């Protein structure tokens, strides 16, 4: 699955932010591009992870 992400440098906090508009604008950040992308991938995995029945 290919999901478009927007990667931006935030001068104020001196970090990269990665945002995915297709998934309710979920976002993450990191000190490097690679770290921001890896953190966004993890956030997307957590978002798409099913909720166990015992918690519903």
TrEMBL record:
<dbReference type="InterPro" id="IPR031807">
    <property type="entry name" value="HicB-like"/>
</dbReference>
<protein>
    <submittedName>
        <fullName>Type II toxin-antitoxin system HicB family antitoxin</fullName>
    </submittedName>
</protein>
<feature type="domain" description="HicB-like antitoxin of toxin-antitoxin system">
    <location>
        <begin position="6"/>
        <end position="50"/>
    </location>
</feature>
<dbReference type="InterPro" id="IPR035069">
    <property type="entry name" value="TTHA1013/TTHA0281-like"/>
</dbReference>
<dbReference type="Pfam" id="PF15919">
    <property type="entry name" value="HicB_lk_antitox"/>
</dbReference>
């Amino acid at each position: 699955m290919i999901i478009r992400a927007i990667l931006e440098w935030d001068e104020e906090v001196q970090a990269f932010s990665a945002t995915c508009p297709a998934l309710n604008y979920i976002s993450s950040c990191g000190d490097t591009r690679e770290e921001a992308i890896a953190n966004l991938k993890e956030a997307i995995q957590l978002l798409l992870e099913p909720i166990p029945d015992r918690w519903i």
